[in-house]
Amino acid sequence: MRQGRRFLHKLRNLFQAGKAEADLEREVQSHLEMLSAHFRESGLTDDEARLAAKRAYGSVEFAKELQRDARSWIPIESLLQDLRFALRSLGRYPGFSAVAILTLALGIGANSAVFKVLDSILLRPLPYHRSNEIVQLNLELRSGGTNSTLNVPEFEFLRDHSKTFASVAGLRGSGTMLLKRHGAPNWIHGLRATEGVFGVLDVHPALGRGFEQDDTRPGSPQVAVLSDALWRSTFGADPGAIGQQIELNDSTYTVVGVMPRDFRFVGSPADIIIALPLSNGIVDTGLNTQVIARLKPGVTMAQAQANVDGEFAALRSEGRSPSSQRGIRLESYQTWLAGDLRTSVLVLFAAVSFLLLIACANVASLLMARATSRQREVAIRLAIGCGRAHLIQQFVMESFALALGGTIAGVIAAGMTLRVLLPSIPWNVSAIGLGGVDARMVWFTLGLTLVTTFLFGIASYWQVSKLSPSVFLKGGVQQAGQQRARRLLVMGEVAVAAMLLVNAGLLIETLYRLHQQRLGFEPEHVVTMTTVFEQKQNVLEFEKEALRRIQAIPGVSSAALTSGLPLSGPDNLPTQQEGRPEHSIGGMEYRAVSPDYFRTMKIPLLRGRAFQQGDNGSAVPVAIVSESVARAWWGSENPLGGRVVVGQYQGRAFPEVLERPRQIVGVVADVKNLAMDEADPATVYVPAEQLPRSQTSAAWVVRTEADVPLGAELRKAVLTVRPDQRILEIEPMTEIVARSIARPAFNASLMAVFGGLALLLTGIGIYGLLSFQVERRRREVAVRIALGAKRLAVISMVVKETLVLMLMGIAAGSVGAFVLGRLLASFLGELWMSEPFVYFGVAGILLFVGLIASYLPARRASGIDPVRSLRYD
Amino acid sequence: MSGRDKSRGDVLQGTLDLIILRVLGTMGPQHAYGIAARVQQVSGDSVLLKQGSLYPGLVRLEQEGWIVGEWKKTENQRDAKYYKLTRAGTKALAAESERWRRSAGLIEKLLEEN
Asked: Model pTM?
């Protein structure tokens, strides 16, 4: 109890040291007064009495020390005092403090925000039970490379016969679907999956049931499981929803279950899960099914891989795979999901680390400069007996105060960064589950700030305090070592900034090229519309009539149909050159198009002709191939007249998809039919009228002369012909393209932001550093001017020296950027052009910054009256 | 009083505290100068107690709650901080005095043994 009482008193005195000190002083004075009064009474004069009193009293400071010892905890009080002192002295140089804190905030705050993104994507496990057991099955293609989808027979084999997995699921996203049930229809995201999906994710419906294998048999009644949110919004959380029917894209589904509230599918947003009807039908022999699986507990990835390799070999020997690819490669599902996300994020992390380096260099130089400018103060204090340890302690407190300020500012900056960053991330943020600032991030920021500030602060002060005080008291000589250190710092900062900027520039350039050149078609002024059909409908007449009407719309220059838009996903079939089994492709992209397709999309026709009205069902089957096919199968010979067989592969025929051989009548340029960052796939085009099976959907492309809003007109044209026609989506082709390059575009813009920040920070850092350097040389400058040098000459001398320094830094940085670019190129697999233009541009910008950063302080230094300069020191 | 550490350094501390408490007990509210003067007087100038040495004791006693300090004016209209015993202090004085006598007596007896 009593200990506690004293403790409280001590605590209070700790924080009210000022008051306690004042009280003490007052008491001491009062005693001294009384003592001198006493001596005065004994007959001494006022002055003598005061002296005698002081002598009698003894050492005032010693007495005070004793009191302080008793009233609180000395070491802590000393620390607090130092902290207060530190804050005060930081406050005396608001420019320095502001810049230091801002630099820390930008460099470290931004870093921790990106760190958090990285952490969430790569480090945190998926929100499923033991998610490290979930694997993605990739197909190793004979032609090299891997595919993330398999075909149905392969999937079924794995599901039925593989001993390696606890469960296996086949997935096929279905994108947006139109849900209709009492009242306004709305668009939802659906996931088509087999019954294994619940086992693989180890999440089961909270209400009702999941799927059974029967549900995936073609012809079975279609069933679906709702997400919790969808259940609430559509059925008002009514448990009687089970067994009810809903209409999705014109088909009827029975609701059999509802997922738990906290479930979310990380691969894509899924409001509803539909049982995927598997069949060896037309759609399914292609590589169209994504397969994920859960390993049996205790089985490692390596073991599983070995098992699967064996099983797959068995599959091949049985001849049951229509695409005898090389094998199946397992990959952690989480890693696969991150995919090229991972490289993007790592690149960002690298960029942000550079930024951090620059920020640290800035802070380091700031602290060093400050330490140097206080050399005299330090020397004097050392000379009058302040222990070096105590001096270091004071500077530690300063660094700590800076670090604290920097951390707070950094966390705020990180929060702001995230708020801006998150909505613009083009990938599936739901998979990441990011919130705002969290504890880990704060710790990271704090740790980083402390490390940088302490490291540089202590280092510089240690250096300073080591120097002999007498040197400074005599005249303030600058150490050569520090000079070199500062030079190196400038060069280093410039080099790192150069690297960042060059890479940002290259990335932007690559993006520009990506955007411009490699589409294979021209998306501007093209509007797309997607429609779905019932299985049994006869669409040809409808399509022809609707096309006619669309072409009649004013402003339309041409219109066409295709079975699949570019950049909208795969639709492939095994295809072989007639009579040449070795010329086979397991999954050649297959597109059924109307005659005007190439003209509308402005896809260059390289040889032969486009389709015509005459290429109908009763005419000779024809085809047009992409140029990569022509090159691969016919080399330099003319492919026209040659024949391809869809549905044939390496001499084997697949009856469900086998078509009559088609004669090649034309060759078109390669088109990015799949994705922007994938190679142009081999494609075969057939006339829509010669499509041997009924279509389930069609995409319309309409080119207009200018950007005309066509939505209503298109709808009218279609609905006039068939009033109940389902129209899914009407959007400009440019938007589809934009979505496709969203990711590299995001990367590039982020890099640009980092580059800009780097430039800003470097500029500030260099300016500060040079300012300081020039200040130090004030004397030299003053002497020169006093001796008659022209002001301009002096300024240009300083500027020239700086530019030389910067050039060296830029050179070093450019080399570094080049090396880095090469590394990243192999890593990213993208084409990183070494554009001299970018290098020169960056060099120019940095030199310009250096020019300004050195000119201004030089001008200021030389502008002062030389006499004042010389005297002022 | 139990729980007080009676190590060597603290014997001096304890002595000082007791001195202060006693002086205040007999003289009533007094400032540090007055306490020191009194000690000097009683000891017949054999103990020269500097005011400074009193401070730690005064702080301790104040923190323990046995004395309380208040700024007042002396007869000569000077500022001085007067300390006085609290009720707990009075009790403590009695207890400490008792303990001192006991330990002093014990030491005395031990020293007498030959």
From this structure: 0.56
